[in-house]
Predict the 3D structure of the following.
Amino acid sequence: MARKPKDAMHLHGHRVVTGPELRATLLAHTPSDGHPGRFRRRLGHSIVLALLLGLIAAGVVGALAVMSGQIKVPAAVESREPAALCPKAVFDYLPNDKVSLNVFNATSKPGLAKSVADQFVARGYKVVEVSNKGTSYRGVGVVVSGAGGQAAAFNIQRNLAGTDYFQDARTDASVDLILTEEFKALVPPELVDQTPGPLTCPRENKRISDDSQWPVLPTQGG
C-alpha cells in the first residue's frame, strides 16, 4: 500500500509557519506607537524634558552657591552701600552754643566720654547725655544726626578730625558723637577750621565688598 505523501506544512504534528504569516503576525501585534514618526516625537519630548530638568538642577545649585557665598553677585555686593550717601551740601560753621551733643564711649578706656564731654562743655556746647555705647566701627569716631542736624554734625567733625558721618531717622537737630579706639584728642580750639564745607564720610573710600574694612553703623546701646 502506497504511503500518503507528507504535508510540507506540518512537521512532527506541528504546523509550519511560513515567512509571510510570521510577518503578518508581527505587524498585527506591533504597538501603534511604534510608528517611526511617533518614535521621533517621543524622543524629542524626552530630550526637552531632560534639558528642563538639567536647567532646574543648575538653578538650584547656583542658588545654593550664592547663598553660601561661593558665588558673589555684583548687585548683592553693591546693595551693602548705605541707602543715604554722604550729603554733598556745603554747611556754614554753626556756633558751638547752638549744638546739642550726646557723647558716647565705645572704647575700653573708662571715663573717656565724660572727659571729652567736659572739653565740649568748655567750648560752649550743650552736652545732653554722656554714656557708653557698643559699635563695630573701626576708626576715630562716629558722628550721627538726622537730616535737621547736619550743620551741627559738620561743626562736631571740625572739632574732631577723621570722624565718619552717618544719618539716621531722628527728627531733632541733636548729634551723637561715638568715640572709638583710634580716638586721640580733639582739635585744639584755636586750630578749628570754621570755614564752610561738607560733611565727611571716609567709609565711601573703602571697598564696600571688603567686610574687614567696612565700618558698621552703631546700633548697640550700652
Notes: The two ends are 129 Å apart (CA to CA).
